[in-house]
Amino acid sequence: MKNIKHFLIAPTLLFFITFSLLPLLFALGLSLTNFSLGGHAKWVGLRNYIWLFKDPIFTGSFKNTVLYTLIGVTFQYWLGLILAVFVSSFKKRRLIKLMILLPFMLPPLVIGFTWRTLLDSRFGPVNALLKIFGINAINWITNPKLAFFSILVVDTWQWTPFMFLILFAGLRMLPKEPFEAAHVDGASAWHSFWDMTFPMLLPISIGAIVLRSIEAFKIFDIVFFITGGGPGNATSSLTLNGYFTALRSGNMGYGAAMSVLMLLTVAITAVVLLMALRGFLAKPKRQGEIALTAYSTESQASEGTNLG
Amino acid sequence: MDKKNTLSKTLRTVGLIFWGIFALFPVYWIIITAFKQSKDIYQGPFLLPFVDFQPTIAAWTKLMGPSKDQFINALTNSILFASVSALIAVLLGSFAGYGLARYSYKYGNMKNNDLSFLIISQRIMPPIVAVIALFAIFSFIKLLDTKVGMILVYTWFNLPLTVYIITDFISRIPRDIEYAAAIDGYGKIHQIFRITLPLAMPGLTAAYLLAFFFSWNDFLLALMLTFRKASTLPIMIMNLSTTDNPQWWFISAVGIISIIPPMIAAIVLDHFIDRQLLSGGTR
């Protein structure tokens, strides 16, 4: 029975080795060749990587991907948190919850083509709405700056429910007593949010943000369907660029190098981030506990005065 | 204070209504688009059926007629892959999650934290890195464009997420409950299956829900590892919309169908989570 722990984790590790580790090593090898679909492979050393740094399309998609992640996740976190707090104050909330979760249930492709028709400059209802306010047709998809903004809006529309789902579950797991005590003591909703809810929720918040950022960095589907990376290279993301290079153009070697570089960036960022967070994560937990004990002693004190 | 409460209640309601319009309008748009025809789309946006435009079921008769075989194949594949792979991912994820939460591992220099990080790091890895190689491996062992292959891929795809969520939930459940069960004569396996996992049920359901969604919504993996036999609904939609004149009404009809299964799952699972959390055994 001592060995049960190895059996518990073995299947997961087996999946890791066959589906992640071996393919990764394969991709590493591929990235050092000029292999193309239907062609021969020749060893080229690090030449693919040197080209990548001089490739404006690659550096452009790199910048876009970072911006999608930073701006998108920030918006989605705050909106998700606001929605979670709003909804948890309602009694009959099942329908509201499902309404909020609905966009997240849609396959990204459906989201892609729906928003492409919604934002269409001639036939789309968004411009029709603006026309009522006397605003002329806006090229949401063909203007480079606006196209980037449009992708961000769609990304937020799609992923805020994910944040909401996790944060709402987190809110429900918080103990009820300190909030009741605070309410009895006359603390405003605003104060009990910043003094208790937010710090107590912070570990879950950080988990949600990390998870979402990882997903955001791989943004592909909605860009693929709404703009195809265009106009020019204005909205292209790393995965999109890798897909076009490796499978559409068939430059498997160059595409593999691209994906390896992408992986390296994410891995380094993630390690640095997680190391920083480990220290940071301890703090809010303590803060949450401090808030808890502070309120419980306070409420005891007030009970004492009531008795007296 | 009463006045303040009504004010914030109004604020909340208004905020939720605005978000509701933002969230739901695109869904309404897909639904009405599925009942349009060419001229209803290319003569300006029409929003109200029977008022703006005359609804037609042309898209739906096409779906059940000429395109039926292709559609049914894609639909059954999508359902099969998402539900089975999510189940396996939750099962294996709870084993690993339990192990990571309750035991100390030491493989070489790797301890629990390193193992957890290794597992979640697969989720960090852009799938495109693995998929290029998986394509080669799958074609070698003849798993390309097969149901078994896709279920395995989606299990792999979701396993890091389920392990992450379930480890977190199990580590919140006090060990004392298991000790008490051990005193009552429960063996380790029974402790896991009869005591700990039922208590972690909200976590398991949340993990299942997310795993189902991620498989169902996946496009990249299906795009690269299937051609025809194991194609899913997203692939069918892509094939339809990359033609010269995309028939948005027909695509919308397929889109609507592809929304329904995750919606049913969400409603059922949401009900389940609500009940489980209220009776929460850990308190």
Description of the molecule:
Chain A has 308 residues and is an all-alpha fold. Chain A has a single domain (46-292), classed as MetI-like (MetI-like fold, Orthogonal Bundle). Chain A has helices at 4-30, 47-54, 56-88, 94-105, 108-118, 125-132, 144-173, 177-184, 189-217, 221-226, 238-248, 252-307. In chain A, helix 3 packs antiparallel against helix 9 (189-217). Chain A is globular, with a radius of gyration of 25 Å. Chain B has 283 residues and is mainly alpha-helical. Chain B has one domain (68-278): MetI-like (MetI-like fold, Orthogonal Bundle). Chain B is 76% helix and 0% strand. Chain B is built from 13 helices and no strands. Chain B is globular, with a radius of gyration of 24 Å. Chain B starts with a helix and ends in a 5-residue tail after the last helix.
Considering the chains and any ligands shown, give keywords for the structure.
heterodimer; A: 308 residues; mainly alpha; MetI-like fold; disordered C terminus; B: 283 residues; 13 helices
List the helices and strands and how they pair.
The complex is a heterodimer of chains A (308) and B (283).
Chain A: H1 4-30, H2 47-54, H3 56-88, H4 94-105, H5 108-118, H6 125-132, H7 144-173, H8 177-184, H9 189-217, H10 221-226, H11 238-248, H12 252-307
Chain B: H1 2-33, H2 38-42, H3 58-64, H4 68-102, H5 112-124, H6 127-140, H7 147-172, H8 176-183, H9 188-199, H10 201-217, H11 220-225, H12 233-241, H13 248-278
What's a concise summary of this model?
The complex is a heterodimer of chains A (308) and B (283). Chain A has twelve helices and no strands.
- What integer is the average pLDDT of chain A? 83
Helix and strand run of chain A:
HHHHHHHHHHHH
Mean pLDDT of chain B: 83
The CATH architecture of chain A is Orthogonal Bundle
CATH homologous superfamily grouping of chain A: MetI-like
Biggest sheet architecture of chain B: none
